[in-house]
Amino acid sequence: MSDVNWHEQAREMWDEKASFWHANSREMWDSGSRKTIVPFFEQHVPEGRSVLDLGCGDGYGSYKLWQKGFEVTGVDLSHEMVSLCQSRLTEGMERLNFLQADMLHLPFEDQSFDTLMAINSLEWTEVPADAFKEVARVIKSGGYMLFGILGPTAGPRNHSYRRLYGEEVICNTMMPWEFEKMALEQGFEVVESKGVYKQGVHNSHLNQLSHELKQSLSFMWLFILKK
């Protein structure tokens, strides 16, 4: 599958899913699977830093970072998602901006941002290593990068199931440990990482497990990298 075809299909899919995502995103960020992301980000990034929110969806995660005092630029492949983002903007929100772009060809100069948040976005690129390099290009040296990678128990992995029949798919089933290895191979430091789990998985289940087994139970794995 060519680069253009893959990403065009991904854009069309997320355009179609924009309304469904918008109906559920606030709950995910406030009390669901994404509720720990912004607090985790704040532990490592001081208030006031510039943030590139890559694959921002309808912009609610970007909005939550802006509320915490960050200067946020949200980018998404989907035109419909960016339209939803724009509808969130009101007068006096100058430090929150949104635009449509492909993460393989970001319209920013090198080292344009202090830091990055990218949640469930690299999985939707044809060659994640290429996307990772392009994303890292626009982050300042010494900057922190927060990635969220879907774990083995995440339902969205169904998008890649039809590859078993030899069909072309537009979702890479990247495992957390694969992302971690890729980041290390490209010279990045893993500062901290943590898992997000489905209901029913408790600390008592996890305490005696190795790092790899904890990742294997995760719905999502969060990484803080340092450039």
Automatic annotation (TrEMBL):
This is SAM-dependent methyltransferase. Keywords: Methyltransferase, Transferase. It comes from Alkalibacillus filiformis. Residues 52-147 form the Methyltransferase type domain. One of its GO terms (biological process) is methylation. GO terms for molecular function: methyltransferase activity. Pfam families: Methyltransf_11. InterPro entries: Erg6_SMT_methyltransf, Methyltransf_11, SAM-dependent_MTases_sf. CDD domains: AdoMet_MTases.
